[in-house]
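Why does this matter for the project? Reviewers at the last site visit asked to see concrete outputs rather than summary tables. In response, this paragraph embeds two records directly. Each consists of the residue sequence and, immediately after it, the corresponding structure tokens. Nothing has been edited or filtered.
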Amino acid sequence: MFENKEFLILLLLIPFMAIFLFYFFYKKKKNISKFMTFKMFNETTGININRYKLKNILLLVSIFFVIIALSNPKFGVKTIIVSKKAATIVIVMDVSKSMLAEDLKPNRLEIAKASLSNLIAGFKGNKIGIVVFAGSAFWKCPITADVVSANNFLNTLNPDDVPLGGTKISKALDLALNSTVDIPEGAKAIILVTDGEDDDSGLHVLIEKAKKHKTKIYTIGIGNTEGTKIPVSNNEYMKDEKGDTVITRLDEQTLQYISDETGGEYINLSESQDSIFKILQIAHSLDKSKDEISKEVKREEQYQIFLFIAFILFCVSFYLSIFKREDENE
């Protein structure tokens, strides 16, 4: 494997150099033959033709290895132990039908996605995970240090991700909490993004679990408290089993309760979309002292070997005398 493959094209110069040296030698030999035999020339000048040829071969081979070194060959493997420091943030996102309400334009879900997209961009250096929920919950994006991928997953969220209707906040929080159990206190946080409407009675149990594992839950409320209809198609709105139009309201009381009980903070996104950046400040304040040891296997650079061989061959070529020694003349 070569890192700088473009330098390999220089290898094409070596045959041309060899042809030039051969041509130069042949022309000299031809000129000498006009006045004396080549044997007489060797005896007269004391030049060792074999050494002359070897000297040129060594020079060409040294150039070959220099070019190989320039291309930075890599082979073999090297295992590196890397210590990384990062906090873990799990975003728990409501994608239930009520998030399609248009009290925030174009709707609650799109405003939440746009706001969180800006937020995640500032999470670089941390690990991010995304859990989505409605009547059930699952991981949309497993915990990762790749914030770009996390953002891409976020932008694809829609109510069809969880076809089961309803809003089960506790199921989503349970998934998020289970993923952070082994992470030290202060190096983790859960961000719950929802309108707060919950049809599950297990919320209290999950709050106690969060307190047990010392995990703070920050809540972001989407929508307004006055209430609004949920569109299902043009000029049609969601109705309940009795045929009455469903009205969805932001349940601030529930969200405030979750954040207060777990030591987090409640933010109403309806008041100001810039308020979400409070979460960014919180993320930056998280403890990143948790060391995560990972192994990275890399191909090791080996250009030094080829450069050393080229240097040795060049030195030998430079110091190799083309003249016969005195003992060879005797």
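We now turn to the second protein, recorded in exactly the same manner.
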Amino acid sequence: MRWDNFPEMAQAEIAGDEIRIVIADDHPSYARGVGLLLNSMAPEIELVGTAGSAAEAIKLVEKSVPDLILMDIQMPGGGIEATRQISEEFPAVKVVMLTVSEDDEDIFDAMKAGASGFLPKQVEVDELVAAIRAVHRGQVVVSPLVADKLLRSAPDERVGLLDVERSLLKLVAEGRDNPDIGREMGMSEATVKRVLKNVVQKLHLHNRVQAAVYAAKKGWV
């Protein structure tokens, strides 16, 4: 997902299905304000609730089962731990981390916990709208700074990928899920998982998120 195209995408994209979100932040006025701004720019985005702590966020997700949660990484109780629990118990709920932190460990921990996006808290509202829509479609969204950090230990360029592995990575970066990739490439879902696992290991990456970032940075999307 190209970050520099977000404003244009947000303006041009036609509103689609309703996207029910929760905003988890220990500043209630900030959370409500962001929710109102998002809804004013994108009527399909509905704020179903706010949470001031990790525990409240988990309880709210259990109660409302939103499509997506915007999670402050430094909220009381830990945004990363809340993301881990939500991802394990409600895998269909996408999590986008909002943070002022640029700490490498925070970024890696958030992605390992299951976050589908990692954005600076000062992100412009139109960019946030585009990011929410993209993550809702199954894509991974990170800012350029975060992408660079995720690939700080870049794979050796001499590592060769088979054509089928490159094609699979391209589809992963486009936000396609495993069943869809299987239909596109004529594979079973089990084969898709096996090939993706092999590619991640071959490139010395950690997970699907880094694989998507790698393909995007290579210009395959």
